[in-house]
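re: the backbone from monday

yeah here it is again, tokenized this time
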């Protein structure tokens, strides 16, 4: 069982930056993949980025490549999403999630943190 708590959301102007954190508690191993997803108003939840807990591989959706960076601090059991050059279309509730076996099935989810980017 893994518990996830996101933080770091807020209101920022376009072009600004935010760093989201996802603190994990419970059983975590290097085989886990941590993902960030987002859901904008009236839209379906979409994948943003992911990182294997060992740090071996990262993936990003095309719309955030070059602007967002996912990372993790193994000692703190925390994953981060550094978001730069934010755009109004990045406005959404951001969720972190864990795929325990890195097979594309995210079994554990946080409660979400809201990001609002004003134009």
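seq for it, each position gets an aa:
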């Amino acid at each position: 069982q893994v518990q996830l708590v996101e933080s770091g959301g807020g209101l920022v102007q376009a072009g600004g930056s935010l760093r989201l954190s996802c603190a994990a508690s419970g059983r975590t191993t290097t085989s886990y993949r941590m993902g960030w997803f987002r859901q904008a108003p009236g839209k379906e939840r979409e994948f943003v980025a992911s990182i294997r807990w060992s740090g071996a591989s990262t993936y990003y959706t095309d719309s955030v490549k070059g602007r967002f960076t996912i990372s993790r601090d193994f000692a703190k059991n925390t994953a981060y999403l550094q978001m730069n050059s934010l755009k109004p279309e990045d406005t959404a509730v951001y969720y972190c999630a864990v795929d325990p076996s890195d097979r594309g099935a995210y079994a554990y989810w946080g409660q979400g943190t809201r990001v609002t980017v004003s134009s």
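The chain has a mean pLDDT of 94. The longest strand covers residues 18-26.
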